[in-house]
Amino acid sequence: MEALIDRSAFLGLDQRTWFYGGAESPPLRGMAEAAKAYIANRANGPDGRLQNAEVELACKRNIAAMLGGRPEQIAILSNASEAISMIATSGDFRAGDNIVLHDLEFPSGVLPWLRLKESGVEVRVVPSREWNVTADDLLAPVDERTRMVVTSHVSYMSGARIDYRSVYAGLKKTQALLLVDATQSLGVVPIDMNEADFVVASSYKWLLAGHGAGILAVNPERAGRFRPRYVGWRSVEDMFSESRFESFRFMPDARRFEGGYPSYPTLYAMKASTELLLSVGIDNIERHVLALGGELIAEMKRIGFAPMTPLAPDRRAGNLSFVCPDGERLAETLRKRGTYVWGGDGRLRASIHLYNDSNDVATLVRQLSAIAEENAS
């Protein structure tokens, strides 16, 4: 299979095999041009501020298009961890309430809720089975005191795609809200913010932008009552109102979660990267990564690596994890040979995006086979 994009659009792909997108994407050449545009606009003073606002709105429109929402439902924070913590500190969680999550979650999706245990909130951790969690698994511990269910759309650990839509359908019969972390899926497979209450994601992985932006999408159907505990000048409707020393009114939409200016250099880059992703088409990217992922799974099984990721195409996305007790050491060995994967936690993870092709699969498998032969001799 060929890549969906000319690989020369990225820096370094002519010298490296990049299966590292679940941790860091390769830099688009357009990032440098985006940074130059930001700097040039800064020199325009007040006009530059207007240009920044246009870029920010364009970014939100692109993200909203990917999520099936509207720009005003999108807030830009500094990172996904901040977005999750913002939600964890904004709810009226009380002693006796509980939060449901599972053991395939990344720490940023767990730690803010553990903090609530000091206030008497219970954290219920659903155990995975064969590196997977079903919607029924997540709904089973939900009761009348459950306030939030937290799940990644795609697990950073196993690569399993979680059926968040079925979870949301079940939760709509309760008072519990659903927070979906789309950090490992937004930009590579479709996701619908209307099938969750909150969706968070980061900018520098599958969205192909730089560090410095966290996306928070707020579905107002049930989450409209949420108000942040932190407030800044961008959170309120009129920061210079006559009563500003006595009271304020939050923005009526997701903007209430934005305290101040975002990282505009990041947004300039993300505007360019999301335009690229939308032009290729998320559905096309999904088909590509599933087909190429099938190739990689078959080849990895052939040389003795057992997949942790579900084999069914509708149960996986771009992340493919394989059982590997010495994954960290093996990833370091591959790095020295110009191939980037993630190793650790008893696994080797290869992340496939629109820039990968069958030659990348062949290179990884060839290098792994060579390393195995060297270790055996």
TrEMBL record:
Single GO MF annotation: catalytic activity
InterPro entries: Aminotrans_V_dom, PyrdxlP-dep_Trfase, PyrdxlP-dep_Trfase_major, PyrdxlP-dep_Trfase_small
Pfam families: Aminotran_5
Aminotransferase class V domain boundaries: 58-364
Official protein name in the record: Aminotransferase class V domain-containing protein
Species: Paenibacillus flagellatus
Lineage: Bacteria, Bacillati, Bacillota, Bacilli, Bacillales
